[in-house]
Amino acid sequence: MKYLQSDIQYFEDHYFWKIYLTIWATLIIFIFIKIKKTKEAIGRLILFPLFYFFLFYVFLNNFITINALYINQIKSVGKEKFEYVVFNYESQISIRTKNSKEYISELTDRKFFNQLKEKRKINHVRPLDQIKHGDTINVVYDKGLFGFKYLN
């Protein structure tokens, strides 16, 4: 997984509903242009999309999020460097940014930590489990088309 769980949650909370509403607005406008404008047809135009709007909201949430974040990482438009403080307690590693806005635990984001460990190994940098409690590490993320950071 290239994205932090907190970044995925941020995307879902702030952008998913905008994308979803845009899709539905486009669909309703298209249907409205194509159908006969009788009272029965207008009633169906209102009721059926409302029903499907709420039904598909649950099912399309994950689909739209995954595809939008995939499109985000197609092209890197820059790099972003974060400095994290390492917490190493009894072989459980977690990191947080210096300003405490982002906290990442090996227990909750195992895939991310595995990718971070692999990247450190490739770059011949000391492994995370050998870093002392309180030390800092730098993590360089790529910034995607939509401005979301991901570990490449």
Question: Could you state the order of secondary-structure elements as H and E?
Answer: HHEEEHEE
Percent strand equals 15-25%
Terminal CA distance: 10 Å
Helix content: 40-55%
Largest sheet: 5 strands, antiparallel
Model description:
With 152 residues, this protein is α+β, with helices and mostly antiparallel strands. Helix content is 51%, strand content 20%. It is built from three helices and five strands; from the N terminus they run H-H-E-E-E-H-E-E. A five-stranded antiparallel sheet has the order 3-2-1-4-5, with helices on one face. The chain is elongated. The protein starts with a helix and ends with a strand. The model has no long low-confidence stretch (mean pLDDT 82).
Outline the fold blueprint.
Blueprint: H1 5-34, H2 39-72, E1 78-89, E2 92-97, E3 103-105, H3 110-122, E4 136-143, E5 149-150
Antiparallel strand pairs: 1-2, 1-4, 2-3, 4-5
Summarize the structure.
This protein has 152 residues and is of the alpha+beta class.
